[in-house]
Amino acid sequence: MLAGLVFVCGLLAAASQVAAGSPGSGVVLAVAFCALAALVSPLAFPRSITAAEAQQRSTDDGRAIIYWRPGCQYCIRLRLKLGRLARRAYWVNIWTDPEAAAAVRAITGGNETVPTVVYAGHPQVNPDPDQLRRQLLAD
């Protein structure tokens, strides 16, 4: 929803620049807003699974679970810093899974602060991306 809103706002801003006689500015705005929409889109993240599925898989193979939500600037920062290593963790969207939101609230003392990472049974709230990157590389 947020990505769609950003995209539509970008198109409107670009169209107003083109209508005002500045097509170059319109193109720049369109490209900038499209890039921003892509960053906040759930499509920029690995496919989300349910909290129950992530917990089961993590128990089986020891991979990290990353609880996130679309539009979260800290989640975007973590995703960008991890790069391809992001696929070595299980991503759970707390806005689509009430059980995931409850798990995050249990970890954070009642808040839905994301990203919250559970790695080797140890939860971390808004972890240092470089530290998590090193942990994922070690796996």
TrEMBL record:
It holds the Pfam family Glutaredoxin. PANTHER family: GLUTAREDOXIN, GLUTAREDOXIN-LIKE PROTEIN NRDH. Residues 65-121 form the Glutaredoxin domain. InterPro entries: Glutaredoxin, Grx-like_ET, Thioredoxin-like_sf. It comes from the Bacteria. The chain crosses the membrane at residues 26-45. Residues 1-20 form the signal peptide. The keyword Thylakoid does not apply. Keywords: Membrane, Signal, Transmembrane, Transmembrane helix. This is Glutaredoxin. It comes from Kribbella orskensis.
